[in-house]
Specification:
By secondary structure, the protein is mainly α. The chain has 11 helices and no strands. Helix 6 runs antiparallel to helix 7 (about 105-115), helix 8 runs antiparallel to helix 9 and helix 9 (about 135-150) packs parallel to helix 11 (about 170-190). The chain is elongated and about 65 Å long. About 40% of the residues are buried. The mean pLDDT is about 90.
């Protein structure tokens, strides 16, 4: 069985995802509760766009081990792709309970909360993700968007400027950040000013 697990890793490096899935399937025929093989096969199904198969593997891994952080996190990412936001938040919350320093779980839960218009919860999670990794540009971008929605134009501008300074070659992110920055600066210019004393 170890040989199949090792060959699966090699096949992943060679981008032979079908072959790796086959190797993990062979392991699971003999050891159906093998969490590593189950979770890895689920991740490969997800990469191939087979979300239902991925969910089936993650569900089985979590049934076997309710503390399977990787399976919980991966299931949440599939749930996000399927717009099952409440399920994703449940799984991300469980990941955070098991591993409070899981920055990706905080970042994804924050972005999901923003989609559900829980802006305070989104800021809380995004602040935590940034606290864990101050250079997490995706969390900073998402926080800029949430700050803009909350009317915190200066905060949105600061996050956008940080992203621009540290992601000079990520053109997709830069385009999105520039839009946030433009919107924040327009909003600051049009905001009412307090009367002079």
């Amino acid at each position: 069985l170890e040989a199949y697990l090792e060959r699966a890793k090699s096949r992943i490096v060679e981008r032979d995802l079908r072959g790796a899935i086959g190797d993990y399937s062979k392991v699971l025929k003999v050891q159906p509760e093998n969490e590593t093989a189950r979770t890895n096969r689920g991740a490969l199904h997800a990469l191939r766009g087979h979300h239902r198969r991925a969910l089936a593997d993650f569900n089985r891994a979590i049934t076997t081990n309710p503390k399977a952080i990787t399976a919980l996190y991966n299931r949440a990412t599939i749930e996000l792709r399927l717009d099952a936001f409440d399920d994703a938040i449940r799984d991300l919350t469980r990941v955070i309970e098991l591993e409070p320093g899981h920055k990706e779980a905080h970042g994804n839960r924050g972005a999901t909360r923003a989609l559900l218009r829980d802006l305070d919860g989104a800021i809380e999670d995004l602040d935590r993700a940034i606290g864990l990794d101050p250079e997490d540009l995706l969390a900073r971008y998402n926080r800029a968007v949430v700050r803009l929605k909350r009317g915190d134009f200066h905060g949105a501008s600061a996050d956008a400027r940080f992203c621009m300074a540290f992601a000079p070659r990520d053109w997709d992110l830069l385009d999105r950040v520039r839009q946030v920055l433009v919107n924040a600066e327009k909003s600051m210019e049009s905001a009412p000013r307090p009367p002079a004393a």
